[in-house]
């Protein structure tokens, strides 16, 4: 179990980090008030920086915005290993072209309207299939992210045993954002960074500060520049990593109840933290 005052991280991930599009990491702690206190935001424009981050000594818990697993249906279709470490090694031994060819062949056999396989967590979260390689390239995110978690030896609850002082959970900021504001709040293109999206980012930021969202964890931040960036960053990267930080805090508060994950999750699929099965009961709310 993590000690009190463990560092929490929220990670907005990209499968191709660069100076223009870095991996963005919010860090903070849960205070005695039950709120998550945002301390800083770091940006990693290269894999070297991200890999060094994963090896920082614990105790820490990170919520990462990329799929940790693949749909079991696809795993069985392609004869991949049904343990997480074996699956990650098998899939990441493929080139991107090879993985895409397998995904394309699988999709070609499926009926219209059901072209992609999904994990059990994807439907309630509204997340894309990890077998998708474009718009967004979630498959590449799995390939680049999962293998680095495995190489770093972190602990992935329900999927893979590792260093219990460095805990990695799958997050999805879009799920939490849509529970607050229905409209779009970000765009990679400057032309898409509209007043309407700015207004939505401001609404999201205010809701996080008030704790008015399904996870109920309020955000605190004494750094006005960070608060401003949550709204002013039109790409949404700053806000997304903070949304992931809130999901990390919710999980940390439930560290004695499996981080709030379902009791049984498929170890090749994983589960997005904070997303409930329809029949689930939150032990801290009942």
UniProtKB/TrEMBL annotation:
UniProt biased composition (Basic and acidic residues): 110-122
Region span, Disordered: 110-130
Highest taxon listed in the record's lineage: Bacteria
Name by which UniProt lists this protein: DUF429 domain-containing protein
Originating organism: Methyloversatilis universalis (strain ATCC BAA-1314 / DSM 25237 / JCM 13912 / CCUG 52030 / FAM5)
């Amino acid at each position: 179990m993590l000690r009190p005052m463990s560092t929490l991280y929220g990670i907005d991930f990209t499968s191709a980090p660069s100076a223009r599009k870095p991996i963005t990491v919010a860090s903070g702690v849960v205070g005695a008030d039950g709120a998550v206190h945002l301390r800083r935001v770091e940006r990693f424009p290269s894999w070297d920086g991200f890999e060094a981050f994963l090896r920082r000594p614990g105790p820490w818990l990170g919520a990462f915005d990329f799929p940790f697993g693949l749909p079991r249906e696809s795993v069985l279709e392609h004869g991949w290993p049904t343990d997480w470490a074996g699956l990650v090694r098998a899939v990441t031994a493929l080139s991107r072209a090879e993985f895409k060819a397998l995904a394309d062949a699988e999709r070609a056999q499926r009926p219209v309207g059901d072209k992609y396989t999904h994990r059990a967590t994807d439907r309630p979260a509204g997340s894309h299939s990890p077998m998708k390689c474009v718009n967004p390239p979630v498959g590449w995110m799995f390939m680049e992210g999962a293998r680095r978690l495995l190489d770093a030896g972190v602990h992935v609850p329900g999927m893979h045993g590792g260093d219990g002082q460095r805990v990695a959970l799958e997050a999805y900021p879009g799920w939490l954002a849509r529970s607050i504001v229905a409209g779009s709040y970000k765009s990679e293109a400057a032309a898409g960074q509209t007043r309407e999206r700015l207004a939505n980012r401001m609404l999201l930021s205010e809701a996080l500060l008030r704790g008015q969202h399904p996870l109920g964890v309020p955000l605190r931040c004494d750094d006005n520049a960070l608060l401003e960036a949550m709204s002013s960053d039109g790409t949404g990267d700053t806000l997304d990593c903070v949304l992931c930080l809130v999901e990390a805090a919710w999980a940390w508060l439930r560290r004695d109840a499996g981080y709030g994950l379902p009791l049984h999750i498929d170890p090749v699929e994983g589960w997005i933290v904070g997303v409930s099965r329809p029949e689930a009961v939150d032990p801290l709310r009942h």
